[in-house]
Amino acid sequence: MKNALITGINGQDGSFLAELLLEKGYNVYGILRRKSVVDYGNVEHIKDKINFIYADMTDVVSLINAMKISQADEVYNLAAQSFVATSWEQPILTANIDALGVTNILEAIRFVNPKCRFYQASTSEMFGKVQAIPQDENTPFYPRSPYGVAKLYGHWITKNYRESFGLFTCSGILFNHEGERRGKEFVTRKITDTVARIKLGVADVLELGNLDAKRDWGHSKDYVKAMWLMLQQDEPDDYVVATGETRTVREFVKIAFEKVGIKIEFSGEGVDEVGKDESGRVLVKVNPKFFRPAEVELLIGSPAKAEEKLGWKREISFDEMVERMIEKDLYLVGREIALAGKKN
Ligand code: GDD
Question: Is residue 305 in contact with ligand 1, taking CB distance under 6 Å?
Fold first, then answer.
């Protein structure tokens, strides 16, 4: 039986990965940060099957301790300040967790068990102002946010520990991956949650920033399989994980509304652009508050290497992903309304 240690276990990816590793018979250890209220987040439903360890990416002693307790054969580093917009408000915190935090966990591995295999959650945000279309493992990086810059450090230190100390370290350059467990600050979940609220009559309008941004969106459940596959290979390497399709935020909005039977037409330009339903009611507006100081305009990745070398293939289509998210949000918002009704 192998031991796996997951940092960021209560996030979206951490929860899908924990489910996958439990299915495969691993002992799963997960790092939690101490809070005044215990928050199991997305692993609440499987919390009895997980061994939790309190530690923090900025505290190397706590990570050494986590390595000792877990006796990990594989470490998956999914912990991060992962919201790009926040990285302009908290650039130092973002760097401490997303950049130096990676060195901390690598040092903990080096001291406690250098044979342990390591997965680093790298990101398509490192491509930023893209230098090639589509982006693959050889595309030069050009990050556009403090988050992207910090993640680039994490990416290179992972490679460096492989080359310097012979550690088995892999980076997965994952393009956007979404799902029913996504935080509501990210655009996809913000859209599906608000569309559900509009459909059920408890919200009037969806306010967004840049509708022209294009993203390559896959489902998190597919992407965690690629993480595991990377650590089962004979040699450590870096891989892009993507769908090879790209869509604008505007297209995502249209498709999400279609799923609840509302047809949206966009008109106007820039901050004056609006999305109206067939009766002419404005359901989508642009709010400059959601613009970013520097934007990543276009992401589209090539999964060719992951498909060929790992045998990875995505199983959940874009359409199915949006459908799942909408269905879940209709259920959650409906339950919220019913509970509020009971209280009154
Ligand atoms: N969040 C948000 N909210 N984004 C908006 C909004 C809005 O109201 N309106 C437009 N957008 C645009 C953003 O400007 C961005 O171009 C795009 O929607 C996607 O934003 P997010 O969903 O916040 O994700 P992200 O692409 O910035 O970052 C995600 O993907 C990365 C991989 O490329 C995160 O998951 C990162 O942690 C991850 O590394």
Answer: no
User: Which residue has the CA at smallest separation from atom 30 of ligand 1?
Assistant: 176
**Class of residue 288 by CB neighbours under 10 A (exposed 0-12, middle 13-18, buried 19+):** exposed
Task: Please name the residue whose Cα sits nearest to atom 15 of ligand 1.
Answer: 213
Give the pLDDT band of residue 344 (cuts 50, 70, 90): confident
| Bond from prior residue into 134 cis (ω within 30 degrees of 0) | yes
Burial 252-277 (b: 16+ CB within 10 A, else e): bbbbbbebbebebeeeeeeeebebbe
- Pick the atom of ligand 1 nearest to 178's CA: 35
pLDDT digits (tens, 9 = 90+) for 304-330: 999 999 999 999 999 999 999 999 999
Q: In this structure, what are the phi and psi dihedrals at residue 330, rounded to the nearest 5 degrees? A: -60, -40
- Contact (CB, 8 A) for 50 and 43: yes
**pTM of the predicted model as reported, rounded to 2 decimal places:** 0.98
User: pLDDT tens-digit profile of 12-62?
Assistant: 999 999 999 999 999 999 999 999 999 999 999 999 999 999 999 999 999
Q: Could you give the CA distance from residue 209 to residue 32 in angstroms, rounded to a whole number?
A: 32
